[in-house]
């Protein structure tokens, strides 16, 4: 049994030696095979370039989309903040109107109002125009003013404001009939 085992091991060793000899011998490759291989590699390169270009395009589009969304979010937050501050502007204007006299306190309230309005203007919040007639895009008619001309604003009950050209609160007005 040992002899058979040794014989099998010798046969296996000879087979392995023959395979190694065949592997080290140069095999002939035809020019057509090489040209076909070059063609395949060129096609693979074109495909990978196209995939890379598509990936770059998609990445750029994603960045642009994220920037648009961030800008929109910033505008939304600024609009909400500005709307909240407009209540303070209204209250300061009411306080000035109710005080009537020119005391130091009233002067301080006027300066505070002016400072607040200047800050709002820095961020694009401006008062809606009420001097050039009624505009349904900027004004909300809440009544008829018998003393005003037709399609003219008679009384402004509450000022309206825009943020970077976009209405954030319409002016409540009374319009002539």
Automatic annotation (TrEMBL):
<feature type="region of interest" description="Disordered">
    <location>
        <begin position="1"/>
        <end position="32"/>
    </location>
</feature>
<dbReference type="GO" id="GO:0005829">
    <property type="term" value="C:cytosol"/>
</dbReference>
<dbReference type="InterPro" id="IPR009012">
    <property type="entry name" value="GrpE_head"/>
</dbReference>
<dbReference type="Pfam" id="PF01025">
    <property type="entry name" value="GrpE"/>
</dbReference>
<dbReference type="GO" id="GO:0051082">
    <property type="term" value="F:unfolded protein binding"/>
</dbReference>
<dbReference type="GO" id="GO:0051087">
    <property type="term" value="F:protein-folding chaperone binding"/>
</dbReference>
<dbReference type="InterPro" id="IPR000740">
    <property type="entry name" value="GrpE"/>
</dbReference>
<dbReference type="GO" id="GO:0006457">
    <property type="term" value="P:protein folding"/>
</dbReference>
<keyword id="KW-0963">Cytoplasm</keyword>
<comment type="function">
    <text>Participates actively in the response to hyperosmotic and heat shock by preventing the aggregation of stress-denatured proteins, in association with DnaK and GrpE. It is the nucleotide exchange factor for DnaK and may function as a thermosensor. Unfolded proteins bind initially to DnaJ; upon interaction with the DnaJ-bound protein, DnaK hydrolyzes its bound ATP, resulting in the formation of a stable complex. GrpE releases ADP from DnaK; ATP binding to DnaK triggers the release of the substrate protein, thus completing the reaction cycle.</text>
</comment>
<dbReference type="GO" id="GO:0042803">
    <property type="term" value="F:protein homodimerization activity"/>
</dbReference>
<feature type="compositionally biased region" description="Low complexity">
    <location>
        <begin position="14"/>
        <end position="28"/>
    </location>
</feature>
<keyword id="KW-0346">Stress response</keyword>
<comment type="subunit">
    <text>Homodimer.</text>
</comment>
<dbReference type="GO" id="GO:0000774">
    <property type="term" value="F:adenyl-nucleotide exchange factor activity"/>
</dbReference>
<keyword id="KW-0143">Chaperone</keyword>
<dbReference type="InterPro" id="IPR013805">
    <property type="entry name" value="GrpE_CC"/>
</dbReference>
<protein>
    <recommendedName>
        <fullName>Protein GrpE</fullName>
    </recommendedName>
</protein>
<comment type="similarity">
    <text>Belongs to the GrpE family.</text>
</comment>
């Amino acid at each position: 049994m040992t002899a058979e085992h040794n014989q099998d091991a010798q046969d296996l060793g000879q087979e392995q030696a023959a395979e190694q000899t065949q592997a080290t011998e140069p095999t002939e490759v035809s020019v057509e095979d090489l040209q076909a291989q070059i063609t395949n590699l060129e096609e693979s390169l074109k495909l990978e370039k196209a995939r890379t270009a598509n990936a770059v395009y998609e990445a750029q589009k994603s960045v642009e989309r994220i920037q648009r969304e961030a800008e929109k979010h910033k505008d939304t937050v600024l609009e909400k903040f500005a709307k909240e501050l407009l209540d303070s502007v209204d209250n300061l204007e009411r306080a000035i109107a109710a005080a009537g006299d020119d005391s130091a306190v009233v002067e301080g309230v006027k300066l505070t109002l002016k400072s607040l309005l200047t800050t709002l203007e820095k961020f694009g919040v401006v008062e809606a125009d009420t001097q050039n007639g009624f505009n349904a895009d900027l004004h909300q008619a809440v009544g008829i003013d018998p003393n005003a001309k037709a399609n003219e604003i008679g009384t402004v009950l509450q000022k309206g404001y825009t943020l970077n050209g976009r209405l954030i609160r319409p002016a409540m007005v009374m319009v002539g009939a």
